[in-house]
């Protein structure tokens, strides 16, 4: 249908005042009530029907319907409770679906406050929807209640819309006062007009205009509705318990999220004062995200349920939270929303992510937000801070997003302007990480790609102290309340396990180059994994991550370089003297910085309350969560060996579970199995048939250059897709998922996520060694995906390994991936019908053989 150049409002007098409507006009009416808005909608709808135009009613308000059901009107009923992004996306889709030239009536926008609690988000919605409606030559009516919204909201609407008009009812008469009429003008256009039937009488006399406007409440500057609700909640502190609980739950829906298992946990342990304290430390509005919520509720559980056990040992926190609404506003203000809408489709999900990521990295924050950021930085002064992702879905039951989003250290040195610039870029980096390939694939694989992923941010003071020009905590690590990775049949899997490093915790959560964290089973903290005495130093931590005040950056130093620094604590708590190493150094004539100290935390585990405290802490959190938990923490010690634990993070940890006991066949002479071992596996009791084995040969892989090694890793990703749905065992040299090709295969987790079993094989000849890095993000991903893990230390006592059981079978690589024939010398894919993996967690037996 061709749309005329000028379109009637249904009121001839109004048409003369504003020179009629034009295709693309968004018309916003400021009214005193919904009934007044309906009064002006009626002639517009009647005219639209008369002109036989397509009319759509977008229904979302809690007020009575503006239009009655009619075959001439198409109604879309939208959910507002799911939040800004879902609502804005739904409007975008329906407008796109209805196409050009459609006429719209939207419910009163002010009703969105009851669900979003934020004027800012209403202006954001209008800012992303209005231009799209304009592009499609539509006509759309909107209503907003006068004196309810902030000046900033009205200013944003005025700037974005084509027409903004005031509608007044005074002494039972209606007046229209145009405030903005885009690309039209007359000498009397912006004067008030009295509506008399179809006519509009211009009020030109000053006496009449003064009488009219003096009877109208022009209102005062209003705070954002978010602040109004928070301030009203403070008044409830003097009310009864029942009223406080009601107000508390309202605030929780604003700050924490909708009803969920985590929401109910927070409801049990937070009171109204707690929620108000959280709100007081939020910048902006919206949800504070899963990481912030997990940290806060875990601390509260320890204080309330610990009955004084943990309070003396817990370090305080003074974190800030950047609400998720800042993220949305940043996208809108930087023109990213249209691209984001295209990216959220199946077709554009991966296609548009790189472009969107670049836009996010190069955007700007508003003047108002910059001022709020600066005030927060002034609070922290020059203390180092860390800017951490805290998305709505993160650290929740079922989805941890371990390591998927960025965390950025700000050493916070330099002038205020330099420190601010670094902080702002850190926030952009976290926002942009929502478009990282691993994060996108994780959401896609778990059916979350259509869910709102609202990115809030947790800003924490870095735990630690200054040591000369370096800043770091004495100890950092991760802890699990239960573990299915054990190396001794006497171990209690429910006692919990720690992964400890000296310095910043970055080395505890990542698989690092030639470095090994200390694994601690909390049933017997001094028990060590099966490592030969001569390898004690080799399989220990050699590098320490610190914040360098001099370089204003995260840096790594060898342990030998800093071993003699003043740690302001007893060095022997962290490191033990290795007499064997000391003797070798003397024999070799070394007198420099080479240290015979080995980072093993022996005295910390033997002579302090630390391991017992951590075991009790993990047990309590798991009991209250009614679910295994994973925590991140730091430990700082004083010169008299007293310590404080800073609980940085707590999240539910998905575990595969023990499963029923498995009857393992007899090994026989050892020649009839693919491999057999005791311990060094993770995944519980299994009897798992294997359909295919993908085997990467150590020596052939080692001979390739770094670029070619990376190419091999990409082939594993292709096999991961081709063999999806089959039980596949992936066997390869050294570490899977390393970033260093010389240590193993640099696959991304998304390139092995469909495997049933992964095996890391030691090869002395080729120089590859598995790393039993339980507790890292990589291992958390394995656990969450239900992938069984095996480390095969070929050559060690009790280990049987016969790769010929696979290599003697036909290599199916070319049949599965014809374009990958050049990798057949290093990748062997065998069909292995009848091959079964058996494991028993109690006896620590592991066997893989044909039956």
From TrEMBL:
<dbReference type="GO" id="GO:0016301">
    <property type="term" value="F:kinase activity"/>
</dbReference>
<dbReference type="Pfam" id="PF01326">
    <property type="entry name" value="PPDK_N"/>
</dbReference>
<dbReference type="InterPro" id="IPR002192">
    <property type="entry name" value="PPDK_AMP/ATP-bd"/>
</dbReference>
<feature type="domain" description="Pyruvate phosphate dikinase AMP/ATP-binding">
    <location>
        <begin position="288"/>
        <end position="664"/>
    </location>
</feature>
<dbReference type="GO" id="GO:0005524">
    <property type="term" value="F:ATP binding"/>
</dbReference>
<protein>
    <submittedName>
        <fullName>Phosphoenolpyruvate synthase</fullName>
    </submittedName>
</protein>
<dbReference type="InterPro" id="IPR013815">
    <property type="entry name" value="ATP_grasp_subdomain_1"/>
</dbReference>
């Amino acid at each position: 249908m061709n749309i005329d150049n000028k379109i009637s409002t249904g009121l001839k007098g109004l048409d003369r005042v504003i020179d009629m409507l034009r295709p693309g006009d968004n018309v916003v009416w400021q009214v005193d009530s919904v009934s007044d808005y309906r009064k002006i909608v009626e002639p517009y709808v009647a005219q639209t029907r008369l002109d036989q135009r397509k009319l759509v009613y977008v229904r979302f308000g809690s007020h009575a319907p503006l239009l009655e059901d009619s075959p001439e009107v198409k109604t879309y009923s939208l959910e507002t409770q799911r939040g800004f992004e879902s609502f804005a996306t739904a409007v975008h889709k329906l407008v796109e679906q209805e196409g050009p030239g459609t006429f719209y009536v939207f419910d009163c926008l002010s009703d969105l406050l009851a669900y979003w609690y934020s004027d800012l988000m209403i202006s954001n919605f209008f800012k992303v929807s209005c231009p799209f409606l304009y592009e499609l030559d539509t006509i759309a009516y909107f209503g907003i209640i006068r004196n309810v919204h902030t000046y900033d909201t009205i200013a944003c609407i005025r700037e974005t819309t084509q027409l903004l008009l005031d509608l007044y009812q005074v002494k039972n008469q209606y007046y229209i006062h145009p405030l903005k009429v885009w690309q039209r003008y007359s000498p009397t256009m912006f004067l008030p007009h009295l509506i008399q039937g179809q006519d509009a009488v211009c009020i030109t006399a000053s006496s009449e205009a003064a009488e009219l406007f003096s009877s109208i409440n022009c209102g005062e500057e209003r705070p954002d509705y978010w602040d109004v609700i928070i301030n009203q909640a403070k008044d409830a502190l003097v009310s009864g318990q029942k009223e406080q609980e009601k107000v508390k739950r309202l605030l929780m829906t604003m700050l924490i999220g909708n009803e969920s298992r985590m929401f109910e946990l927070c409801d049990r342990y937070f009171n109204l004062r707690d929620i108000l304290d959280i709100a007081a430390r939020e910048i902006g509005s919206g949800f504070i995200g899963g990481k912030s919520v997990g940290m806060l509720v875990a601390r509260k559980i320890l204080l309330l349920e610990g009955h004084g056990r943990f309070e003396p040992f817990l370090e305080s926190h003074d974190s800030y939270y950047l609400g998720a609404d800042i993220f949305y506003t940043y996208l809108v203000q930087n023109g990213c929303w249209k691209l984001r809408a295209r990216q959220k489709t199946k077709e554009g999900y991966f296609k548009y992510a790189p472009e969107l990521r670049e836009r996010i990295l190069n955007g700007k924050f508003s003047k108002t937000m910059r001022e709020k950021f600066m005030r927060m930085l002034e609070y922290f002064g020059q203390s180092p801070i860390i800017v951490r992702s805290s998305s709505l879905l993160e650290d929740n039951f079922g989805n941890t997003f371990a390591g998927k989003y960025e965390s950025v250290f700000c050493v916070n040195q330099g002038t205020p302007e330099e420190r601010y610039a670094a902080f702002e870029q850190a926030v952009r980096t976290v926002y942009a990480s929502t478009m990282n390939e691993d994060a996108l694939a994780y959401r896609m694989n778990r059916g979350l790609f259509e869910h709102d992923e609202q990115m809030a941010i947790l800003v924490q003071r870095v735990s630690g102290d200054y040591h000369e020009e370096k800043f770091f905590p004495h100890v950092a690590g991760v802890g699990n309340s239960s573990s299915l990775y054990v190396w001794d049949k006497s171990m209690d899997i429910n006692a919990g396990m720690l992964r400890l490093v000296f310095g910043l915790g970055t080395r505890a959560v990542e698989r690092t180059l030639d470095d090994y964290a200390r694994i601690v089973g909390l049933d017997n903290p001094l028990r060590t994994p099966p490592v030969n005495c001569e390898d004690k130093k080799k399989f220990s931590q050699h590098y320490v991550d610190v914040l360098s005040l001099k370089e204003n950056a995260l840096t790594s130093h060898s342990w030998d370089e800093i071993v003699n620094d003043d740690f302001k604590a007893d060095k022997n708590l962290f490191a033990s003297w290795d007499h064997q190493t000391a003797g070798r150094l003397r024999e070799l004539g070394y007198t420099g910085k080479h240290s015979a100290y080995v980072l093993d935390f022996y005295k910390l585990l033997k002579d302090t309350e630390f391991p017992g405290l951590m075991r009790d802490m993990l047990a309590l959190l798991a009991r209250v969560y009614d679910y295994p938990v994973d925590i991140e923490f730091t430990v700082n010690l004083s010169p008299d060996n007293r310590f404080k634990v800073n609980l940085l993070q707590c999240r539910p940890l998905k575990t595969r579970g023990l499963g029923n006991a498995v009857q393992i066949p007899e090994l026989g002479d050892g020649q009839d199995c693919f491999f057999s071992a005791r311990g060094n596996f993770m995944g519980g009791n299994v009897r798992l048939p294997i359909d295919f084995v993908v085997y990467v040969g150590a020596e052939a892989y080692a001979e390739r250059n770094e670029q070619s090694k990376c190419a091999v890793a990409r082939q594993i990703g292709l096999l991961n897709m081709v063999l999806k749905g089959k039980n596949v065992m992936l066997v390869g040299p050294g570490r899977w998922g390393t970033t260093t090709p010389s240590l193993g295969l640099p696959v991304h987790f998304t390139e092995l996520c469909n495997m049933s079993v992964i095996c890391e094989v030691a090869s002395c000849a080729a120089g590859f060694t598995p790393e039993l890095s339980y507790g890292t993000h990589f291992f958390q991903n394995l656990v969450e995906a239900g992938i069984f893990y095996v480390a095969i230390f070929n050559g060690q006592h009790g280990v049987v390994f016969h790769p010929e059981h696979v290599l003697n079978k036909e290599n199916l690589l070319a049949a599965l991936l014809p374009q990958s024939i050049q990798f057949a010398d290093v990748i062997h894919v065998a069909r292995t019908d009848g091959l079964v993996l058996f494991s028993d967690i109690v006896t620590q037996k592991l066997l893989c053989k044909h039956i």
